[in-house]
Amino acid sequence: MSKSEDLVKQLSEKYAAIGQDVNVHLEGLLHSTPITYWDYIQTDALLNLQTQRTNLPDEMVFIMYHQVNELLFKMILWEIEQIAYNENPTAAFFSERLGRISRYFDVLSSSFVVMGDGMDVAQYMKFRNTLTPASGFQSAQYRKIEFASTELINLIDIRFRTTIDRDTPFQHAFDHLYWQAAGKDHKTGKKSTLINLFEERYMEDFIRFMKTYNTLNLWTKFKDLPEADKADIGLQNAMRHYDHTVNVRWVMAHYHAAGKYLNSGKEKAEATGASDWQKYMHPRYQKRIFFPDLWTEKEMENWGIDNLETCAIL
Fold first, then answer.
1. How many alpha carbons fall within 13 Å on the CB side of residue 8?
2. What CATH number labels 56-311?
3. Is residue 57 classed as helix, strand or coil in its secondary structure?
4. CA-CA distance, 115 to 120, in Å (whole number)?
5. Using an 8 Å Cβ cutoff, are 252 and 118 in contact?
6. pLDDT tens, position by position, 146-183
7. What residues does CATH 1.20.58 cover in the chain?
8. pTM (predicted TM-score)
9. How far apart are CA 53 and CA 129, in angstroms?
10. 256 closest CA partner among 109, 128, 88
C-alpha cells in the first residue's frame, strides 16, 4: 500500500468513526484556500484591539503592554490545566510544565522595564486619570492563576487565616481573599467601586473556578503525588522557583515600576483604582506563598524582604 493509499484509509476510518463521508471532506479540499500567517494568527483582529482614551502617544504603550500580559496569563493557565487534568502526572511531566509556566513569568518579570522605562512620566500622569476606576488589579486571569496554583487558605488575608478552613463556604473565603484588603475602606468596611465592578463582572465565575480547582490546584496535585515523586529534587526546585518568581520577583518588579510613576510627584499618588497599592502588593505584608511546606520557617519569615534567589535551589 502506498503512502497516499494509507493516508486515505486512515482518513476514511477517522471520518467513519464520527459518521462522516470522507469523500465530502476530500472534495472540500479542492475548493479551500491556502492558510496564511495573517489568517492563522488573526493579526488584523489582534492589531485593532488597541483603543486609546487620550491622544497621548505613550498610552498606546500602556495598552499593548497589558494586552501582552493577558496573553501570557492565558498561556500560563493553559499549562496549569494540563497538570490539573492529568490523572497520573509524573515528576518529570510536572517539572516540565512548571518550567514552561516559570519561563512565562520570567518574561513577565523582566518585561516591566518596557513600561517602567518606556513611558514618559508626565504623559502617564495625565492619561492615568482617564482610567479610573480601572486597574490591573482587575485582571481576572491573574486571579485564576492564583486559584489554580494553591489551596485557598494560602490566598486568604493573613489576618483571617486562622478563622477559615476547608469547610468554610466559598463565598465567605472569597470575601476574605488577600486582595480584598486593597479595595475596602477599613473604617467603614465599604467596598470601593474598583471591587464592586470587579465582583459584578467576575465573582460568579470565580466561585465556580475556585470550586473546580479546590482539588486540582498545583499544590494539591503535588501533595497527591507518590512519595518518591514528591521527594524529587528537580520537581521541588521547579515548585520553589515558580512560587518565588510569581509571589516575590514578579510582584516586586511590578511594585517598583508602579512606584516610579506613583511616587514621581511632590505628593504620592494613589493607584488608578484608589487601592492601598503598597500594602496590597508588597509580599512582606500578605506573605502570599503557594507551596508553604517547601520553604523553611526563616525563608517564609523573610518572604519579600531578603533576596530569596539564593534559596531557590535545594
1. 9
2. 1.20.58
3. coil
4. 9
5. no
6. 999 999 999 998 889 998 888 889 999 999 998 887 77
7. 56-311
8. 0.88
9. 10
10. 109
